[in-house]
Structures are given as C-alpha cells and as structure tokens.
Amino acid sequence: xxxxxxxxxxxxxxxxxxxxxxxxxxxxxxxxxxxxxxxxxxxxxxxxxxxxxxxxxxxxxxxxxxxxxxxxxxxxxxxxxxxxxxxxxxxxxxxxxxxxxxxxxxxxxxxxxxxxxxxxxxxxxxxxxxxxxxxxxxxxxxxxxxxxxxxxxxxxxxxxxxxxxxxxxxxxxxxxxxxxxxxxxxxxxxxxxxxxxxxxxxxxxxxxxxxxxxxxxxxxxxxxxxxxxxxxxxxxxxxxxxxxxxxxxxxxxxxxxxxxxxxxxxxxxxxxxxxxxxxxxxxxxxxxxxxxxxxxxxxxxxxxxxxxxxxxxxxxx
Length: 317
Ligand code: MEV
Description:
Structural class: alpha+beta
Bound molecules: (R)-mevalonate
Strand content: 15-25%
Radius of gyration: 20 Å
Distance between the termini: 39 Å
C-alpha cells in the first residue's frame, strides 16, 4: 500500500498577537518556506504489532503506546479516531518531518497537527474537510498552549492570509500589493504558553493597563488590515512597528528581538516587530521585495541564527 502524505505550512502573525487571545482582531499569514510533512504507511506485519511514530526534528521515535496519554500526537490520533467512530488504529508507521523550528513562533505545533490530522483521516479512508481539520487541530493546540486563540491552527489549516477574531468566522484577505517579509530567528527558544500565561498574570494584576494595550493593538490591526488590502506598505510598516512597541510594553519582547527590530528599521525596513508569542523566537521585517536578500544578510550579521523570505502575492497575481 503506498504511503499517504500530507503537508502543512508554517505561519507568522503579521499583527495582533496576544491581544487576539482577548477577543481583539489579528492578521496572520501562512509561510510556505517552512513546512511539515506527515507520511503514513500500513505495516500489517510490523514487529510487536505496534504503530510506530518517527519525528526526527522533535527527537521522537517510539511506539504510539509509549507516548503519554496527553502527548499532542497521541491526542491528535485519538481525536481523529473518535471523530471517525473507530476504536483502533490499523498498525502503521507515522513519519513526521518538519523544516520549521520548534518553540520559535512559526506555528510548528499547529503545522504538525494539521499535517498529521489530514494524513491520518485520509489514511483511514475519510479525508477531513478543512473545518474538521481545524477543529481537531484547535483541540490539540489547547494541549500545547493552554488557552490559544485558534489563529495558528486556522491560518495553517486554510493556508491563506486571514483577519481573525476568536470565536468568529475568519475573513480571508489579500494584499493590494505583494507583501515581502524577512523572518529572522533569534535562536532563543520560547514557549507560547509561558508568554500567554505571563500576559494573563499581568492582565490580572493590572486590568486597566492591559485592556488599554489590547484595545490599542486592536485598533492597529484594523488599520493594518486597510493598509494591507489597499497596498499601502508605508502605513502598514508603521503599524507593525507601533505594534512591536505595544508588545514591548506588554513584556513579551526581549533584548535580542529588540536589537533585530531596531536594526531592521535602521537598514530601511518599512516596519518590524516580533511575531508570535515573543520572549525569543522570530521577528519579521516588512521590506521592498528587491531588498529582501540584503535585509536577510544584514539580520544574520546582527546575530539572527536563520532567516526566511516570504512573499504574499497581491490580489490577482
Ligand atoms: C501565537 O502565534 C499567537 C498568540 O497570540 C497566542 C494565540 O493567539 O493563541 C501569542
């Protein structure tokens, strides 16, 4: 039997992270330059009659039964089986390969879930529709991140840029002019759930201050959406940089993110900010497309450990 393979992209949050957990809007875009591939092949004659999971980039190679009950991969598999009203998985080998760095704000956990859920539902003869993939991936995200907004699994499932408000239908948006982002990794691993719970702590200690920050970010996202759709990159860039300053006030930036953001701006970026949970991970710089390579090299020279360049094609391109 041939292997079933499904892939899912990564993502960056263009604007609005953290505030999106508090019902404010955010914009996210898929990143196809990093992705996860899940391949499943039946192994009816496998030794010990056991399904094996192989995921080299998270150093995982074990029998499914050896994963703890709450392991996100095990939970994803059980949720797919439950949805299909199956009580067991035919013995198989599940391989998950990802080029996305983990704990870096690029959606590696949601990308893994989406690729796995798609591949497994197909392997079991009933390919899930996007809505079903998204719903299961959201349940798995709760294990990874505690109280996620759902933006990561949604942008990765649909693989389209979107304007998102928690618990509301998302709106797919296309830029009026091609958007080019240089994504630079600080190399500092950061846990989204830790950052989200620290923001919650800050909110509980000083509700007025955090509510004001969330509202200001919400307003910036609405203005970023207009600039994105109208192709006004100057105004979009300013909005992204202002968003970074509000995230600094929220306490989710770090020295290296600030250094890379300031440096990108000094080198001519139209705007720059951290992206995702923060406290490490990746930053993004909005640039003119013909300046992306130079910006990527400059950010590497300033201490970024890796860079990706992604283009979001304009409407009609
Ligand atoms: C993570 O990509 C974005 C956060 O806002 C968390 C979430 O929305 O679930 C930090």
